[in-house]
Write a structure and sequence with these properties.
The chain has 317 residues and is of the alpha+beta class. The chain is built from nine helices and 13 strands. The structure holds N-hydroxy-L-asparagine.
Amino acid sequence: MKRRNFLQTTASTVMLSSLLVEESFAQSKGFPMVISTWKNEKANEAAWATLQKKGSALDAVEAGARIPEADPNDTSVGYGGFPDRDGHVTLDACIMDEKGNAGSVTFLEGIMHPISVARAVMEKTPHVMLSGEGALQFALSQGFKQENLLTETAKKAWKEWQKEAKYEPKINIERHDTIGLLALGNQGEVSGACTTSGLAFKMHGRVGDSPIIGGAVFCDNEVGGACATGLGEFVMKTLGSFLIVELMRNGKSPQKACEEAIMRIVKRYKYKEFQIGYLAIDKKGQYGAYSIQKGFSFTLTKNGVTKVFEADYYMKN
Ligand code: SD4
C-alpha cells in the first residue's frame, strides 16, 4: 500500500472507530447513569460523584442541579440568572424521587439553591409546592441564607433590554442552560430535578414549567423518567414529562416517546417560533432526546465518562 493510501486508510479507520466508540457509549445500557439538558458536564460530574459515594439518584440530581444554581456565568439558573422585566431574579425548581414523592418551589427570590428548598418542601412539609413569599419564609426557617442573586452582568443585560423592552422568547439563545436532570441510581432507582430562573425579562409573577411536576419533570420507578427545557408555556399546555412517561409505560422507547411529545406540540401550536427539548430514560438505562428545532444538546454520563451530544429534532426543513 502506498504511504498516502495507508495514511488515508488509517485516518478514516481512526475516525470510524471513534464514531463506533461514541455510538457504543451512547447506546450502552444499564445503571447508574445521569443525563441532563444542554451542555452541563460539571453538573453531571457532581451527580456522578454523588452516586459513586453511594448517594441515591435523588441525592445525585440535587447535587447536579446545585452546580449551575451557584454559577454566576449561567444566566438562566439561580445566581447570575437574568431577572424579570422588573429586575427581580425569580426562581422555579422541582424534584421527584423513585417513590413518587415530589417537591417544588415557584417564584422564589434570594435563595441560591431552590432545588434544595424544593427537596425540603418534599421531605419536611405535607405539601408539594410552595410559592413566592411563603417559599422564602419556609427556606429561611430551614436555615437557607437570603442573598442578592442579581449579578452586575445580569443587571447590565436587563438595562440593555429595557431600552426596547420587547418580550420575545428566542430560540436556543437565551443562554438556555435551565437544567433538567434524570438519574438512574445504584439500585436502578429513577429520580429527576429541574431548576431555572425562567425566561429572561418575563412578566413579574410569571411561573414556567420548571416547578411543575409532570411538566418539566416526571418519574415513575416502574417505567422511567422525563424532563423538559425550552419555552415552558408549551410544556405546561401538553404536560410533556408526564406524557412521555405514560407513552413509555405503553411500550414506546424513550426516543419515540420524546418524539411523540414534540409532535403533540407541533400539531397544535405555532412551533416554528420557539424551542422545546425533551429527555427521557427508561429502567434499562436507555435514553431518548428530541427537540423542535436544531440546537438542543444534552449531557450523558455513564461509567464515569461524560459526553455532550446534539439531539435529533423535528424541523429539518
Ligand atoms: C421556562 N422552561 O421557564 C424554562 C426555561 C428554559 O432553557 O428551559 N430555558 O419556561
